[in-house]
Amino acid sequence: MAETPEIIDTQLIRALQREGRASYQDLARELRLPRATVSARLRSLLENSTVRVVAAVDPAFLGQHVIAHVSVVASGPVGHIAGEIAHWSEAVLVSAIGGTHDLIAEIRVASHDELHALLTQLREHPNVAYIDTLIYTGVVKGFFISQYAGEVSIDDVDTQLIEILQKDGRASYRDLAAAVGLSPTAARTRVQRLLDARIIKISAVEARGAGGRQLSMGVGMNLAGDNDAVLDLLRRSSHVEFVAQTVGRFDAVATLAASSPRELLDQLEQIRSLPGVSRIDSWLHLEVVKEDYARRIV
To answer: Which of 109, 125, 175, 226 lies 20 to 30 A from 262 at CA?
Structure first.
């Protein structure tokens, strides 16, 4: 039985999340499909904005050593709050959700003092009733976290390449070379160096929420016992896009993706059944107001 376009698209997006610059030939080989089919499906996904393939600079390279997951309960329309947070350069994700809270945001800053200042500003918003904050202590799985280890420097040409790739992670080496005045071979070498040094990661961003192809759900977990075993199982799950250990009301948070409410329920049931998971809370992404990992390097 031939696979449907929807199944092909899901497999293609998952492959691009793992390797955003994978060639059509490599994608076709991995999906066991004709190259022409893969090319046509990817072109369709990109043209209708179902997916974007972009580069993101690792937070550690940018000096963003504090990453917070902020949940907001609104006392008025949530759109006003979301709009304000979306304008913050420190916010990479802002989403209206259904659940105990009304809005979540991921904030990346250099210090706890900077985070405190932003949260104070948020609390002063007239439509904010209260906020809950989690601090990431470690990212177990994340398509845009590359775990930069340090001791690698970049120059102006590297910076130009990164800025282009943040807009189009699949820009050809010929186009990259023309933009920065290098040969395609030299451009390829520089991009590979940025990837190998874990300064950048190139992956796919899929549209989420009501306007997206798939449903997306956040999960907060309280753990007991062997936390590493639970986190490893979540890391290896194809339905789990993101996992982080946290300090706060949860010990870990994760993001699930599925094509239907039934699939999301199945994933929640699997998490509930894991030894070491004592309690979970969940929220559905209704509208992703902002998901932007591009950052200016200064």
So the answer is: 226
Q: Model-level pTM?
A: 0.90
Tokens coding 282: 């969940």
Expressed in percent and rounded to 5, the helix, strand and coil fractions of the chain are 35, 30, 30
Which of 3.20.20.70, 1.10.10.10, 3.40.50.2300, 2.160.10.10 is the CATH number of 5-48?
Answer: 1.10.10.10
CA distance 107 to 85: 9
Architecture of domain 153-196: Orthogonal Bundle (1.10)
Residue 103 · residue 78 · CB < 8 Å: yes
* Domain 66-144+207-291, second-level architecture: 2-Layer Sandwich (3.30)
Strand extents, DSSP E, 3-65: 51-57
- Structure confidence at residue 1 (pLDDT): 43
Of 11-15, 189-193, 212-216, the poorest mean pLDDT is in 212-216
- Residue partners of 207: CB distance under 8 A and separation at least 6: 49, 50, 51, 213, 288
Q: How confident is the model at residue 147 (pLDDT cuts 50, 70, 90)?
A: confident
